Amino acid sequence: MAITPDFLFALANPIAMIGWVLLIVAPRWSLTRRLVLSGALPLLLAVAYVLLIGSHYLGASASEGGFSSLQEVAALFRDPWALLAGWVHYLCFDMSIGIWETHDAHKRGIPHLLLVPALVFTFLFGPLGLLLYAIIRRWYPAPALAS
Questions:
Q1: How far apart are CA 122 and CA 78, in angstroms?
Q2: What distances in angstroms separate CA 121 from CA 19, 28, 89, 95, 147, one per listed residue?
Q3: How far apart are CA 114 and CA 105, in angstroms?
Q4: Global confidence as pTM
Q5: Which residue pairs from 108-115 have beta carbons closer than 8 angstroms and sit at least 24 positions apart in sequence?
Q6: pLDDT at 6 exceeding the cut of 60
Q7: DSSP 140
Q8: Helix 80-108 × helix 5-25 angle, to 10°
Q9: Membrane-crossing residues (predicted)?
Q10: What confidence tens digit (pLDDT) does each residue in 23-64 have?
């Protein structure tokens, strides 16, 4: 079996989905703590990202695209390996934000049912979920630090 961008895309999505389901359905389960809340799953995605972006810059499409203009970004993402790296970047960072939201919600005593919509929106729309969580957390101040 050849390793292709399509194959790795089909592999990365379920891995991320497992993490999100655990965060939403079983946030206090020991497996969720070990696999997701520890950061292990996003770090696995981070390793994949580094390998993918490295393969792009070492590959035949290395000189295509860049980050200086929208046209350069569009040219960069015409390469399927770079496009996959961008997708894994989203998966990794969105899950990292979901993990931060979950940890912060636990510290503030935010009911999990209020957190769930923010997690779902963070998974689906990244910044929209972060914005929703920022609004929710305004009503739950951080606990005072013990002196």
A1: 26
A2: 15, 20, 17, 11, 36
A3: 9
A4: 0.89
A5: 108/137, 108/140, 108/141, 108/142, 108/143, 109/140, 109/143, 110/136, 110/137, 110/140, 112/27, 115/27
A6: yes
A7: S
A8: 10
A9: 6-26, 35-60, 80-100, 112-136
A10: 999 999 999 999 999 999 999 999 999 999 888 777 777 778
- d(CA 143, CA 86) in angstroms, rounded, equals 37
Q: In this structure, which long-range contacts are made by residues 27-31, counting pairs with CB atoms below 8 Å and at least 24 apart in sequence?
A: 27/102, 27/106, 27/112, 27/115
What does the alpha-carbon distance between residue 130 and residue 57 come to, in Å, rounded to a whole number?
Answer: 31
Which conformational region is residue 54 in: left (phi greater than 0), alpha (psi within -120 to 50 degrees), or beta? alpha
CA atoms of 81 and 6, how far apart (whole Å): 9
Whether residue 7 contacts residue 1, with contact meaning beta carbons closer than 8 Å, is answered with yes
In this structure, what token pair is assigned to residue 131? 């914005």
